[in-house]
Amino acid sequence: MAFNIDSYNNLDFDAKTQVFLKDLEEYLSKETDIIANLANTSAFISAFFENVNWSGFYLLKENQLVLGPFCGMPATTRIAIGKGVCGTAFEKNEILVVDNVCEFPGHIACDVRSKSEVVIPLVKDGKKYGVLDIDSGVYSRFSKEDVEILKKVLEILYKYTDLENLK
Ligand code: SME
User: Fold this and answer.
1) pTM of this prediction?
2) Residues 103-157: pLDDT tens digits?
């Protein structure tokens, strides 16, 4: 299986989204290892979304969020529950879309280029496992439509990956 980013060329956004979700499902459905699937999910998000400079996971371990698989620059390794955008989204169990990270009290800067951010809690069967975090160097990068696509990404991840194996 060789990934070809050029297969997304010349497609309109809806068609590109369908191909992206189908490709992701094909990769994740063939693997059960959680690290492998989280790593490929980060890579797919980075490949698909334009102007994304960081995409990855923070995973709940001993009541903290600990850096997991990601694509991007080196990042802070531990985030306390309730701190930063990630810790706040996790604590409130809410999707947070931050149009300007400088205006978010307590934002934790990792890549200095990041201007906007979206964080989606990882929740399966009512249990919280961590967060998906995506940064952009563009203000207000993440739309409602992007959030809906990312929710579909996580549904595919949950379908093929047993997050209980994180423990
Ligand atoms: N900005 C995040 C920290 C993680 S990095 O963006 C990769 C936050 O405020 O929680």
Assistant:
1) 0.96
2) 999 999 998 999 999 999 999 999 999 999 999 999 999 999 999 999 999 999 9
Residue having the nearest C-alpha atom to atom 2 of ligand 1? 108
Give the residues surrounding ligand 1 with Cβ less than 6 Å away.
54, 75-76, 79, 84-86, 107-108, 110, 114, 117, 133, 135
Pairing label, strands 54-61, 127-136 = antiparallel
Domains of the chain, residue spans: 5-166
* Positive or negative: CA dihedral 33, 36, 42, 43: negative
Among the CATH numbers 3.40.1790.10, 3.30.160.250, 1.10.3430.10, 3.30.450.40, which is that of 5-166?
3.30.450.40
The answer to whether 142 and 149 are in contact (CB under 8 A) is: no
